[in-house]
Amino acid sequence: MIRQGLNIFHFNFKSNLRVVVGLILSFNVWGQQKAPVKFLVDNDNGYFEIFLDKSKLLKLYKDTLTVGKHTAEIWSYGYDVKEIEFTVLPDTLNEVYVKLDRSAPYLAYAESYKTYRMHFHKMVTLPVSATLSCGIVSGIFLLNGYDLKKQIDLDMIGYFVSSDVDEIEAYKIAVDENNKKYSICRAGYYTFGGLMLVGIGTSIYTGIKFRNNYEEPVYSKQSPFSTRTGLNFSPSGIGFIYRIG
Amino acid sequence: MKSKAINKLSFNLFGNLISAQVVVFVFALFLFSSCLKKIDGVNELNSNIYDYEYSGECWFYIDDAYSYFNDFGQQFVKIEAVLPEEKFPGLQPNLIFITCNVNDEQEVIFNSYINTKGDFEFFYDAQVSSDNEYCLEAGLYIQDRDTTINKFTLCTNL
Questions:
Q1: A46-50, B33-37, B70-74, B125-129: the lowest-pLDDT one
Q2: Do the Cβ atoms of A193 and B47 come within 8 Å?
Q3: ipTM for the complex?
Q4: pTM of the prediction?
Q5: For chain B, which end, N or C, has fewer CB atoms within 10 Å of the first or last residue's CB respectively?
Q6: Domain that holds residue B12
Q7: CATH architecture group of domain A32-102
Q8: Which residues of B touch A186 (CB under 8 A)?
Q9: Helix (H) or strand (E) holding A218
Q10: Domain assignment of residue B54, yes or no
Q11: What percent of chain A has pLDDT over 90?
C-alpha cells in the first residue's frame, strides 16, 4: 500500500475501494494550483540535489510546485545537507535562495589532497619537468649538431673534389667555423643529455618512493538521498509518484 | 571538475609512467652515447693538392727518363712524369697547368691535358747532365694568382 501509486494500472474498482479513494485524492492533488519555483543554490561546483517534501528528488533548478508551504533538503558534493522551508505563492515566479556550507569531512579531504598534490609535484612533477627540460635542450643541441655535421660533411666533400684554391680556402674556413659550433653543440648535448639521464634516474627513484609512501585521498560523491529515494522521480516532471505512509 | 579529471588520469597513468621511464632511460642512454660523435678528418683538411697547406707526399711520379737527339743532332734527356688520378680531386678539369724544371734549368709552364686513364702527363726536355742525375721539380700553377704551389722534387738516373 505504501507504493500504491505504482499499481494504478493493476487495480480493480470492485475489489479495492481504498485504491479508488487514493485515486480521487490524487486527482485532487493534480487539481491544486501550481506556480513555478526557481532554486538559487549557491555552491562552487554547480551541481546540487533537492529532496523536496521528503518525497521527490529534484536535480533541476526549476520546477512547478503546488502553492503553499514546502520543505526541502539540499545537498551538493562537498557540502552539508541543508534543510529549508519555503512558501510557493500563486501567479509568480518563486525564487528560493540557498547558500550551502562546506562539510567538515570535505575540508579535511581538501587539505589532505592539497598535501598529497604538493608531494606529487615535488617528487614527480618537478623532477619529470626538469628532466624533460634538459631533454628538450639536449635535443635542440642534437638537432643543431646534426645540421652542422651535415654541412661539415658537405663542405669536406667539396674540399676534396675542388681544384679551385679560393673555393678550397672557403671550404676550409666554413668547416673550421662549423666545427667550432659543432663542438659547442656537442658540449651542450652531452651536458644536458647527462643531466637528463640523471633526471630520469632521479624521477624513477622519487616516483617509486612517492608511489610507495603516498596514497591519493578519496572523498565519496555518494548522494545522501540515494538511499532514501527508492523511487526516483524524473526531473522533467512527467511522472508523479507519492509515498504514502 | 575538469582539472580533477585530468589529475585522476595522470595518476592512473602514473604507474605506467615509471616503467615507461625505465624504457626511456635505456633508450636515452643508447641514444646519448651514439650521437654527435667527433667528426674525423676535420683538422686534417690538407690532402687536396690544390690546398696551399697541402701536407701530403709528392703528388707526381717520374714515369720514364731517356736521352734522345733532336732534328738538329743535339742530345737531350726527356723526363716524363705523371700526376695520377688518385692524387687528384674528384671533379677533374680537362686541363691543368704545371710548372717544371730539371736541375734548376729554366722553368716552364706545361699545359697538361687529362688522358683516357684520368691521369695528367707532363715532361721536360733537360740538358745532359755530367753526373747523370736528373732532378725534376714540379708545382701546380695557379693561373688566377700567377703563382705556383706545392712544389716537389724527384730525382732519377738514366
A1: B33-37
A2: no
A3: 0.77
A4: 0.64
A5: N
A6: 1-37
A7: Sandwich (2.60)
A8: 36, 38
A9: none
A10: no
A11: 64
